[in-house]
Amino acid sequence: MPYFDTASAAPLHPVARQALIAALDEGWADPARLYREGRRARLLLDAAREAAAAAVGCRPDELVFTPSGTRALHAAVAGAAAGRHRTGRHLVHSAVEHSAVLHAAEPFDTTAVGVDRAGRVDAGEFAAALRTDTALACLQSANHEVGTVQPVAEVADACRAAGVPLLVDAAQSLAWGPVPGAWSLLAGSAHKWGGPPGVGLLAVRKGTRFAPQEPADDRESGRAPGFENLPAIVAAAASLRAVRAEAAAEAVRLSALVDRIRTRVPQLVPDVEVVGHDRLRLPHLVTFSCLYVDGEALLTGLDRAGFSVSSGSSCTSSTLTPSHVLKAMGVLSEGNVRVSLPAGTGEEEVTRFLAVLPEVVAEVRGRLGAPPAGRTSGPASAAASAAGASADLVVDSLGKRCPIPVIELAKVIGDVPVGGLITVLSDDEAARLDIPAWCAMRDQDYIGEHPATRGTAYQIRRRT
Amino acid sequence: MPYFDTASAAPLHPVARQALIAALDEGWADPARLYREGRRARLLLDAAREAAAAAVGCRPDELVFTPSGTRALHAAVAGAAAGRHRTGRHLVHSAVEHSAVLHAAEPFDTTAVGVDRAGRVDAGEFAAALRTDTALACLQSANHEVGTVQPVAEVADACRAAGVPLLVDAAQSLAWGPVPGAWSLLAGSAHKWGGPPGVGLLAVRKGTRFAPQEPADDRESGRAPGFENLPAIVAAAASLRAVRAEAAAEAVRLSALVDRIRTRVPQLVPDVEVVGHDRLRLPHLVTFSCLYVDGEALLTGLDRAGFSVSSGSSCTSSTLTPSHVLKAMGVLSEGNVRVSLPAGTGEEEVTRFLAVLPEVVAEVRGRLGAPPAGRTSGPASAAASAAGASADLVVDSLGKRCPIPVIELAKVIGDVPVGGLITVLSDDEAARLDIPAWCAMRDQDYIGEHPATRGTAYQIRRRT
After folding, report:
1. ipTM above 0.90, yes or no
2. Distance CA B223, CA B82 (A)
């Protein structure tokens, strides 16, 4: 049963499993104690710290273990910003950071640097956002939803030149290699690299001002309060070393499989947009969106067919809004699928996925009454012609959720003449992203949106 | 090799070990995902929450898992105080709370309610400290250093009457049973009951105002950000259930062993003070302090003899101050030993400990040149008499660490006549606690302290 959602949580690496079980017997005691059980625990903790620091590319005394990647990011943003509170309360981050960064940044004055359609920030644009009152800059090494690799080294140089520390969220890339460049802080998450959950890491390079914002605590240099999650820390460090040993070969292998998905999916499934950068990307991750498809139904269909994947569609979110990453990229969010292959994924699993996907998509589209595959638009329908179609049309999609507003638009575009205007009324957040994306995919003119008595009015002019 | 420091961290319970290993295979995925691995993880998480809630005595939806007991306390203090910020910023807590509570309370206006010599708060005195601007009250169920059980139910009633929520730190007692009474919030720590590290729990009863102070996060009702430490949570819940099943019988058995230590230690070792309540106490924990002994040397000696114990002496603390608990109780802190027996401790291990302890104490005392055992004082020494001892004496102990200032005082008390005054100059924090404690144990009059040119001058009048 292929599990293709490593970007959420990787299955435990066999080395992590072994190390964890061994450390249960040797590493349960308090490493702050002086008796033998405590000394044993301390030795394990020190060794894990050294191994993790070597993999990150920092000194062991610059690295602490936190309870999760999320908590590492929270502590990093709060601690680094507080360390420079005299400079100001301004933070710069990309628009596609992980929600842990965005939420931690909420109390501050922030500038979100936009990304291109591939999800990549421009280093120059990022540098231009730095101000004299910027306390901290944040940039992920690679995006968690679309896999696009960010220009971290260039941005780090710009930050250094401006005297601003750069925090790198390396959660998605740490399995593949150290983050290059002159970053100041870095966060990672063990369960993304095959370690157990319950372990994050936070590196703060010497010379970086840092004032921990949590209550005082002796452990982990005062940067991560609470008893160390020791057996899991040992397992996390061991598995990081293990995945790194396999990383170069596995990256080549998985990258070829991802290329196959990137190429074949649009050939096999009509009306698909593959999103994210085609070269500057993580080796194991690919994301695409399918027109006229409900993301949750697609995930359920793939799950029934034995494939576990993730989605940034609004229907799979608790807030019913599409992923902020897809939104920032301006790409289609409906029928969104993220495939992230675990190490060891075989070619035959990908072959089977490519065999199953078209059927599942077709089934969902059929159920939703989607327009025929690949139809751009067409002549005015017979009914419309007979009735002498008016130039303009209003589609009331109020109360309907993604992908229905887009399906209804697609169905009626042929009912207006070329040059005719369609107004779609919708109160679904996904429409804001998906109606313009549909227009771009279908070569129609997206005019814009304005508030309506209820919901929002989206205007489209038929071009073809 | 007997490990007698369960109050720091209990060895992993066999049930926890089994459950953890099983959950590594079933519970590594993201419980927020809808595919089969995620659903399996969600089932495990829900079952663990139900089991933990049943053991705590709350509803499953009132309980969240945190990364540690410390983080549960931090979140509880910050969240409950913020939830009632309109009431005020005043917090009431006992003087002997865990440092996690004291540090979390630092940003607030606090009243520390004192304890008696047994380490127990008086419920009436606690109630009297509640004010109209009190946002939160905090009381441990039992003390972590001396085992004294606090009057939680009475204090909870008083808090309820005053409309103030009570947070109970139940870290030390949860293995033994639920906390009685109308508390509002409760925190616990899995590695204290034989679960793995990396898991704490926080219960917030319905109707308690609570405003999480960490960055927003979907997980654990927004009260504990970050990916759930799932295999460890499963193990924590399983072991809590397991230790509870054995608790009643084990409490009787260990309590008898502790009573034996409480009785025999003062008989076997001269100049010992057993501290903590003799009846209202945890079943497995006993603490005593040995005059003229260096706590660190004592721990090292016991470790060499195969016993792992803990200490609240200043020399075993990173800040070189004696434990705030012993300080609040006004008891001797030098040569302090905390014995906390794990479940399953045999009688023969305690017998062996009682055989070894006197030798180890005697060895440390011999090395430090301590006065002969049991000597209260004596006639003025021959030298002093011959010289025509002056009525008063100054002992310069500046730069010397615990227990040297007390040893030097004990050595010269015989050199002044009854009624004579001794002034001990010391810059060691432990002297502030241990000189008065020594006077109480030795029936000498402690006059008081005042600042000296260097350090502090402690004044003692010879009475016997």
Report:
1. yes
2. 13
A294: tokens are 């409900």
Q: Which residues contact A323 (CB under 8 A, 6 or more apart)?
A: A145, A312, A313, A317, A333, A336
Which of A68, A228, A310 is closest, CB to CB, to B226?
A68
Establish whether the linkage from the previous residue to A31 is cis, with ω within 30° of 0.
no
Assigned token pair, A416: 């207006």
The stretch B432-444 carries a mean pLDDT of 95
pTM across the whole model = 0.94
What's the rounded Cα separation, in Å, for the pair A69 and A174?
12
Q: Could you tell me the strand order of the sheet in which B90-94 lies?
A: B63-66, B200-204, B185-189, B166-169, B134-140, B90-94, B109-113
**Cβ neighbours of A411 (radius 10 Å):** 17
CB atoms within 10 A of CB A317: 19
Alpha carbon A272 to chain centroid, angstroms: 19
Q: Which residues of A are catalytic?
A: 315
CA dihedral B263, B267, B268, B269 (to 10 degrees): 100
Burial classification of residue A188, based on how many CB atoms lie within 10 Å of its CB (0-12 exposed, 13-18 middle, 19 or more buried) = buried
Do A70 and A200 contact (CB within 8 A), yes or no? yes
Over residues A125-151, the pLDDT tens digits come to 999 999 999 999 999 999 999 999 999
Residues A104/A136, Cβ–Cβ less than 8 Å: no
What SS3 state is found at A121? coil
Distance separating alpha carbons of residues A250 and A331, to the nearest angstrom: 29
- Shortest distance, CA B62 to any CA of chain A (angstroms): 21
Contact A227 B37 (CB under 8 A): no
CA distances from A146 to A180, A213, A288, B427 (A): 20, 32, 9, 61
**Edge-to-edge strands, sheet with A90-94:** A63-66, A200-204, A185-189, A166-169, A134-140, A90-94, A109-113
Residue A388, pLDDT above cutoff 60 = no
Q: How many CB pairs under 8 A join A and B?
A: 191
Identify the closest residue of chain A to B26 by CA–CA distance. Answer: A11
E strand residue ranges, B415-455: 421-426, 445-451
CB contact under 8 A, A214 and B74: yes
Distance from CA of B11 to the nearest CA of A (A): 6
Give B376 to chain A, closest Cα distance, Å: 33
- Chain B residues with CB-CB distance to A309 below 8 A: 35
Relative to beta strand B166-169, strand B134-140 is parallel
Query: Given A12, A38, A232, which is nearest B198 (Cβ)?
Result: A232
How far, in Å, CA of B334 to CA of B434, rounded?
Answer: 7
Residues of A in contact with B7 (CB under 8 A): none
Domains and CATH numbers, chain A: 14-243 (3.40.640.10), 248-368 (3.90.1150.10), 382-461 (3.30.110.40)
Is B402 an annotated catalytic residue?
no
